[in-house]
Write a structure and sequence with these properties.
Layout lengths: L3 E4 L10 E4 L7 H4 L2 H7 L4 E4 L18 H12 L7 E5 L1 H9 L7 E5 L8 H10 L1 H10 L9 H8 L6 H8 L7 H10 L11 E6 L7 H10 L5 E3 L11 H14 L4
Parallel strand pairs: 2-3, 2-4, 4-5, 5-6, 6-7
Antiparallel strand pairs: 1-3
Length: 261
């Protein structure tokens, strides 16, 4: 059974639950640092699963062969347990999985944070090869994505701004898992998103200093879903970065503007 972190509001005012999907190497814990409580205090019931092999969910020994289809099944398994169709929120790889899930399911709304764009991770991969050739060689030798985040310094580079405290970087680094090599191949080429199949209204958010999915790729995501992106002065892990409140506030305002009850 998947780990599922749930934060219920003390005073429920919203019937629509929020379902948060984490990205590569992370787990449900990344949403529980700030966002689950923030939105519970706004009256929403909030849910965050750890995908198989992540966080406290089983399957770490088989994680390298998990497919995107497996992870989408995890999302579907969680969503069906909710009291009604949720607003779904995905970060990074989680944003890619949200796009894949929405190809066959329409929800009241979706929010993408620093998401894999519809053309996949080819740009990210080329940047990794250029800047971290040794680490990328390890990825392919070991069929494991962990070499890309195997030190606190690498974790800072990929996920956080330079002003993030070393203590916090170390704290988050110690919580990272390996990631599926097979899903990396899905995001690279084998199973790219199909935006023309998605009918769910979308909010697209990005970080101006994100080294994984830079501004142009976030703009391409927004264009594919017929909307405009909104950017924050932060790096990739927008839910953990200093200033995360600004991101949450923007999300809450969008939900209100959409009339989500």
């Amino acid at each position: 059974m998947l780990e599922l972190i749930v934060r219920q509001p003390a005073h429920p005012t919203k019937a629509t639950p929020l379902l948060f999907i984490h990205g590569a190497w992370h787990g449900a814990w990344c949403w529980d640092e700030h966002f689950l409580t923030y939105f519970a205090e706004k009256g929403y019931a909030t849910y965050a699963p750890s995908l198989r092999g992540h966080g406290k969910s089983p399957g770490k020994e088989k994680i390298r062969w998990n497919t995107a289809k497996d992870y989408v099944a995890d999302i579907a398994e969680t969503a069906v347990k909710l009291p009604q169709p949720p607003i779904i929120i995905g970060h990074s790889m989680g944003g890619y999985l949200v796009q894949k899930y929405l190809e066959t399911t329409t929800l009241p709304g979706a929010i993408l944070l620093a998401s894999v764009p519809p053309n996949g991770v080819i740009g990210t991969t080329l940047r990794m090869i250029r800047h971290f050739p040794g680490q990328f060689a390890k990825v392919n030798l070991k069929l494991s994505l962990y070499p890309l985040v195997e030190t606190a310094a690498l974790t800072r580079h990929h996920f956080f701004s330079a002003n993030m405290s070393p203590t916090l970087v170390q704290h988050y680094f110690e919580r990272l898992d390996d990631e599926s090599y097979r899903t990396f191949l899905d995001m690279l080429l084998l199973s790219l998103p199909k935006p023309d199949r998605v009918k769910t209204p979308m909010l697209v958010l990005g970080g101006r200093y994100d080294t994984i999915f830079p501004i142009k790729e976030v703009e391409a995501t927004a264009l594919a879903y017929h909307t405009k992106p909104y950017f924050f002065s932060m790096a990739h892990d927008m839910m953990l970065e200093s200033g995360w409140e600004q991101v949450a506030d923007k999300m809450a305002a969008w939900l209100e503007a959409k009339g989500i009850e």
